[in-house]
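Table S2 (continued). Query chain:
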Amino acid sequence: MTTSMDRTAAEPVTVPFSARERWTLVVAAAWLVIGLQLDAYAHATTPELETFWTPWHGVLYSGIAASGFTLLWIMRSRLPGVPTYASLLALPNALRIPLGGMAALLVGGGMDTLWHNVFGIEQDMEIFISPSHEFIILGMVLVAAGPVLMQATVPGRELGTGGGFLVATAALFAVLPVHIYSLHASAIGFRHLGSGAEPVPIFSPDAQLVHGYLFSTVLLLLPLILIGRRWRLPIGLPTALIAVPAALMHLMFDSEDSWWPALTLAAASVVLEAAFRIAGRATRATLGVNARWILLGLIAPPLAWGSVLVVGGIVEGSVGFNVHMVSGLLTFTALTGVATVLVARSVQHLQAE
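Corresponding output:
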């Protein structure tokens, strides 16, 4: 028979997450992700950088330590006096997921030092494929998602000013590593215009650019859908989750070129958010919430990317794609948006058997 003393030794204590705990983890995650941004900027602007021992790595790896100690501090009142494997597994997802992220960071960080010493410093495309870097990015995303998961334990559908700012900030730090790491398959940060070749070869840079629009559509929509499943989206949050990454990506990797791609996407996000909020109020009595999200996925991507292509055509004189490519690309982004909405809003929590 299990005694109360046995349960005390095995089960974590249920303690609500405080605003102080949530914001402390946001700061630690910001430290971590800013280290990645500084390192990415250093490599983008200093190609001859050939050493592991850089100030940017110092910020990155001290951010890993800060995140780890922050999680230990948050767990201190939620574990028994003698933690066990079972008590760690019984922690809420708001802690288990960032803990999994810390494990990935420790594995990736250790691998990265060894990898650089054995195989050298990665260059160009190697940066995005290196196994140690993949673990580091995964860990960053999971740790940065922690404050949002903690906020999700608070009852209610309304975030409020403080909660909305926390969710927006944490979500930005969770998606930025993925935007940086997927730079090779992203339509934000660079001018994604065609070469003007006729006909367009199947295996060509033009074909790769198409995939950039599709991947970026998924990556920009997904955080909005996931947050929208739990809360009513605060005003300005959709715009921030699109405009800020676009601006930061351009600043880090393409700041010497024209700003029109990032600024156009940012302006389009402002207009689209305002339009969809007005349309949502007008159709609330006739359309269900899922139907409104499906319309968002169907309409917003082609309008946003269409705006970028229109401005690109004006600024550059041509978008470099013919009518078949442009119309097909925008149709493909609409279908990708709908598919993203349907999948992300249909995933259900599975009960334990």
